[in-house]
Amino acid sequence: MTHQAPPPSALPGADPGRQIAQLREALRLVERIAGRADCASPEGRLDEAARISEAYARSLPVAQRRFEALAAETSVWAAAGVEALLIAGEDAPRAAAARLAHALERALSEMAALLPPATPSR
């Protein structure tokens, strides 16, 4: 029997709103480990996912591919970081969790910046 690595969670063509939501959930977990309070509302997270999905659908293919690549890359290192923190358990260093949270926030901002701004409502 051979061991095969699981496929990345951010597959090309995967729903970008779902990708953002998964990364936001990882961020929430890391923030709890870092000792930060959860400030985002569930409605706000759903709204963000919907806005990202809509903007992704309107974006050029090159921007979509870059978004997918960044989402896949972020998912890999975020999963590794979360796993390391969870393995450390109660001894997980808060400073490391805070750095990981900051890196996740930065990556999420970069992903959003790749997509066109929201269209005004009529």
> What is the average per-residue confidence, as pLDDT, rounded to a whole number?
84
Unreliable runs, pLDDT <50, ≥5 residues? Answer: 1-10
- Derived from helix and strand composition plus strand pairing, the structural class reads mainly alpha
Q: Determine the strand fraction and express it as a percent band.
A: under 5%
Categorize the overall geometry. elongated
Q: What can be said about the biggest beta sheet?
A: none
What's the gyration radius in Å?
A: 16 Å
Number of helices: 4
What is the β-strand count?
0
Q: Give the SSE string.
A: HHHH
Helix content class? 55-70%
In total, how many domains does the architecture comprise?
1
Calculate the terminal CA-CA distance, rounded to whole Å. Answer: 58 Å
Q: Can you walk through the features of this model?
A:
With about 120 residues, the protein is mainly α. It has one domain. It has helices spanning about 15-35, 40-60, 60-90, 95-115. Helix 1 packs antiparallel against helix 2 (about 40-60). The longest helix is centred in the middle third of the chain and has 28 residues, at about 60-90. The radius of gyration is 16 Å and the shape is elongated.
